[in-house]
Amino acid sequence: MSAPGIGDRPRRVISLGFPAEQGEVRRALISVDAALAAAGVGRDLRDRTQIALAEACNNIVEHAYATGPAASDPAITLDVAADRGGLQITLRDRGGPMPGGRVPVPDLPEIDPDDMLGLPEGGFGWPLLRGMARSLSVSRRNGQNILRFRLPMADTPANRGQKAL
Amino acid sequence: MKMTFDDSGDVAVLLVEESRIDASVAIQFKDRFRDLTEQGTGNVILDLSRVEFLDSSGLGAVVAARKLLGEGRLLELAGLTPAVDKVMTLTRMSTVFPIHADVAAALASHAVPARASS
To answer: Domain spans of chain B?
Structure first.
């Protein structure tokens, strides 16, 4: 499933900067999908990229920048690089730090089939991101949050289920 | 948020004519769903065949939509595209919503004859 132009060494596919707003996240994700398609990346990996990026970006909008819009511009920068193993994603923002300075490890919200009116409407963001991402890490340097993760070319069972730090 | 609602049969069909249900439109989705379905009394089939992407906020809006129907009515999903199917499966929501390959299959499961495309 190797695509033309994707080799052993990571090569930049797209870099974007955008304001911390949900509509801007949508536009950025559509741009990423188009760039990946143009680079020859297949549908499955592109779908996983969309899911992971949506949760990562919306988390920045809703939590890191919870107190309001960013003073810095662009508020969020996104870099996608590709190599034969998959994609390397880097997101940077200047919002508030992640609580505890670590990536949250929440369980999936409980679902009771006998209580449809009590189904959870939230709490799926981090589990979804964790379900897609490998080698997920956060760091903070000079007031900047840096979230990195990989998306493997093939989502095989061997690649799955590794709980990153 | 463009949606088409067809309640001419026993089971209503709500077609979402958007390619994405995400955080930027989740509230609109829920509001529009309420406006379209609150007069009815039967089950609703949500046709997601044109929705290529659903994020966790969009999923939350679908769950909220289900709750709006209350105890007496079901929300059934039809036409899940690969990314939507992935999100439904990973969150295990696929275990609580009736899911059909497409609207025709959903209607067939209620033994409703396929509608003529007049």
So the answer is: 3-109
